[in-house]
Write a structure and sequence with these properties.
This protein has 9 helices and no strands.
Amino acid sequence: MDERDLIKQAQKGNQQALSELLQKHYPFLKSYLLKITVNPYLAEDLTQETLIKAIEKITWYDGRAAFSSWLITIGSRLYIDFLRKKDTEKRWTEKEKAISKMKWAAGNLNRDWPEFLEVLLTLSDEYRIPLILKHYYGYTYAEIADILHIREGTVKSRVHHASNQLRKEWLDDEQTSG
């Protein structure tokens, strides 16, 4: 069965089709959430929560966007909700960031961004998420705006700001290490 058939069957209550569909997208979803959270444990929790939401809401999927985009939307919103809940307390201490970086590097969780991770961590979530969606996953500004429930102009501004900040940090790092 192709993906559209799996979705139709899952929406009709076929548990096997739903299972196949979610298993197919699990690695992609977890990889995305790992990039935006930079925390393997949180990424795993959010991946599981996203899959649960997808199971609960599979009949709401309308096919306007790719199924993977629908999952990214759910996962992004869950992460944003998580951040809102934690907003009154400091999310990460410097020690936790260092531990997370070491675990990331030790586990080779994302081999395609090795040196860039440290610089990427300098960005706040509101800038890092749109940047990753745009430049790593190739979503359009309009799609990102839809995923994050913000205006397209805001997405463009955040991606531009994040890109400039990364360039600045990257150049500063190269000058101090060189």
